[in-house]
Amino acid sequence: MNASPVVPEPFKIVLVVAESGTVTTVALSAETAVATCIRKALVKEKFPKPPFAPFHDLIEMAFD
Length: 64
Fold this sequence. Notes:
The chain is α+β, with helices and mostly antiparallel strands. It has one helix spanning 33-42; strands at residues 11-17, 23-28, 55-61. The chain contains 1 helix and 3 strands. Strand 1 (11-17) and strand 2 form a beta hairpin.
């Protein structure tokens, strides 16, 4: 008997990047295990200088 793989629930991330490229905010639409793990990684990231600041990005995550 084959078990179906567990598919994580979809969620959205709002990422705010400062003029320096540092992440100032990571907001999640749902506090799932995967979302929380991604947030922990994103807050440590430094991105290239954005075209304007604060720079907002919406990331939609779906696993189907």
